[in-house]
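Problem 3 from the worked examples.
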Amino acid sequence: MDQEKQKAITSLFEVVSSIERKWANEWNNHNVLGFSKSHILILDYLSQEGPKRPSAIADRLKVTTGGVTVLTTKLINAGFIEKTQHVTDRRAFQLKITPDGEEILEEARQQVSEIINNMFGMLSAEEVQTLRDIFAKCLLDPNPNR
């Protein structure tokens, strides 16, 4: 990689890190719900996809099943999700969003929408799509045959 490209990538890393910190700070400053982004992502996943096993949630969030247990315990205790018996495997359980969970998710979506508008509102729809495409490309494995 040439030196100019390396310098640009280093600068990009700094910008992306700053955006991530800004996003986290915006969430923390405006979060009146008391839940992390991961909690909201779980609620959103269950709302969109229906009941899921903890392992599916772990795969989706790229965390361990132990991490899912910690996150979901808070949501269960708050009454936002519940454990249900798996339809085909009676030994297993799934997690399902509750009506209260749907309500809190809607509040969270409004908060996220405000944060996104504050951070990215100056961009056109085309620019946002371009950013999304570029970052999605960066997540692809450059060596899929390892």
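Problem 4, a separate protein:
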Amino acid sequence: MRPGRLDRLAVALAGLLGALATAGAALAAHGRTEGSFLAIAAAVAFVHAPALLALGLAGSALRARALPIGLMTLGTLLFSGDLASRALLGGRAFLNAAPTGGTLLILGWLSLVVLAALPARRA
């Protein structure tokens, strides 16, 4: 079965998060910024990049996977982006960006629980 747009998008987002996580971890390791914020931002991105990769590779076997893909992508960008902004720019991205991102990440993972309970699609 040929991968669809959503599959390719999820895989591309996984690659982007993986690259950003690697860059953030390298910056944190070399001590040029507030390392603890950057290290946490990188860790969160490192955790969610493989999750997005798996969702992209799941194909149509997992119904409504656009929901966890969207929640995890937006959540990671908000959470990690806010922490990276604090480390690199000295201030928050915007008020409540990290808590909002964290909430979206939790909802993304919980949406997988719901999707796993749905009946599988038939070919």
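Solution to problem 4. Residues 5-117 form one domain. The helical segments are 5-29, 35-58, 66-89, 97-117.
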